[in-house]
Amino acid sequence: MKFINPSRCWLVLILLLSPFSSAQSSENAPLRLVTLGGTVTETVYALGAGQQVVATDTSSVWPPAVHALPKVGYYRELAAEGILSAAPDLVLASAHAGPPAVLQKLRSAGIKLVVLPEPPPLAEALAMISSIAQAVGKDAEARALIKSIEESIKALPPAPQHKPGALVVIGGQGGQWMAAGRDSAAGALVTLAGARNVASSFSGYRPVGDEAIISLAPDIIIVPQHALPMLGGRQGILQRPSVAATPAGQKQQVLVMDSLMILAMGPRVGTAAQLLSQHFIGLQTDSGS
Questions:
Q1: Which is the most buried residue in 120, 182, 235, 254, by most CB within 10 A?
Q2: Where does the secretion signal sit in this chain (predicted)?
């Protein structure tokens, strides 16, 4: 069985790319961008370079303006023709973009390509923002965005002495649940916000069955919006017997979040951490601890 394992290392690969100095001005920035990966696209827009994006992939769903752009396919299953037809000056791609043969075809066609890591941890998320900003000539905007994120993180309340247990789940094949373990953005985010990731015994995303759900005993179950229908909706989750046997099921604690906010450490990571922190504090209040 294959498990999804997010990248552990911090590495920015800049391939076939003319050097982008930190002093690059917006006048010299690429005019036509194709972005591959929801976090990459969201970051480009957060930096104020959205008007330069001419096409994205189907995982790019934020901000709403991206829905009007042509789609070149899912970033893990790309075809070169769609990207080439957009005539980009620069392609910004997630580390998981592919297949490799397609990326090689882009390089062979003379397309400038920047492949970026997919965070966590937080330091790598901030470094990714800086790397994208350097490529699109938005260094000042990146400094302002990073400062805003850092201020949001610093403003988080202290973690409670008894941290609630959080389980982030997404839909898997055949309705099977997949849980976010350590080294995943979702796992890192719930920890940052003051909870325990109850699935931290494994890395990446792994299937969890009924026995495991009962054993993990989460106080809250967090679901990305796009996965909710696959899991039977909020009621379907709560009606699952194994969930009903957990503190989360007994207190009906199911939180549905914007998919990119919970599954990726992008430019809204500070907002996501604040939102989660408020829910976790509410759990403590409800339990009287």
A1: 120
A2: 1-23
Count of domains in the chain? Answer: 2
Q: Is residue 149 within 8 Å of residue 170, measured between CB atoms?
A: no
Secondary structure (DSSP) of 80-137 = HHHHHHT--SEEEEETT---HHHHHHHHHTT-EEEEE----SHHHHHHHHHHHHHHHT
pLDDT tens figures, 44-69? 999 999 999 999 999 999 999 999 99
pLDDT in tens, 210-251: 999 999 999 999 999 999 999 999 999 999 999 999 999 999
- Kindly state the average pLDDT of the residues 181-194: 94
Instruction: Examine the pLDDT at 10 and tell me if it is beyond 60.
Output: no
User: What is the rounded CA–CA span in Å between residue 42 and residue 35?
Assistant: 9
Domain containing residue 205: CATH number: 3.40.50.1980
Helix, strand or coil for residue 228?
Answer: coil
6 assigned to some structural domain: no
Distance CA(270)–CA(46), nearest Å, equals 13
3-state secondary structure of 49: coil
Single-letter amino acid code for the residue at 115: V
Res 174 pLDDT > 70: yes
Domain containing residue 223:
165-287
Mark which of 95, 122, 154 sits at the end of a domain.
154
